């Protein structure tokens, strides 16, 4: 009976590091994970990325302008009180 309890104890002690190894390997996906992300973009893809970034910047600048205008309205209303 004591040998069974020794094996159970050993299993519990090893369970944590073994699970950690398996989970880390699963998160990283093994050696081939992300290989497609390392390929360089072709010219059309690079242009599209630039256009998307420019569009996003313009949208964010528009939102900043709206927020500043709203802040100014709130501040002027607070001063009038």
- Order of H and E elements: HH
Topology, number of strands: 0
The gyration radius over C-alpha positions equals 29 Å
Helix content: over 70%
Low-confidence stretches: none
What is the beta-strand fraction?
under 5%
* Protein structure class: mainly alpha
Shape: elongated
Terminal residue distance: 83 Å
Question: What's the mean pLDDT score?
Answer: 82
What summary fits the major beta sheet?
none
Q: What is the count of DSSP helices, taking H or I runs of 4+ residues?
A: 2
What would a concise description of this structure say?
With 81 residues, the chain is an all-alpha fold. The protein is built from two helices and no strands.
Describe this structure in words.
With 81 residues, the protein is mostly helical. The protein has 2 domains: 1-37; 40-81. The chain is 80% helix and 0% strand. It is elongated and about 85 Å long.
Secondary structure: elements and pairs:
Blueprint (H helix, E strand, L loop, with lengths): L1 H27 L14 H38 L1
């Amino acid at each position: 009976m004591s040998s069974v309890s020794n094996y159970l104890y050993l299993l519990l002690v090893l369970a944590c590091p073994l699970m950690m190894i398996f989970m880390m390997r699963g998160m990283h996906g093994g050696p081939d994970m992300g290989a497609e992300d390392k390929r360089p973009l072709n010219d059309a893809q690079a242009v599209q990325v630039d256009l998307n970034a420019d569009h996003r910047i313009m949208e964010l600048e528009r939102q900043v302008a709206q927020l500043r205008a709203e802040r100014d309205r709130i501040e002027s209303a607070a001063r009038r009180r």
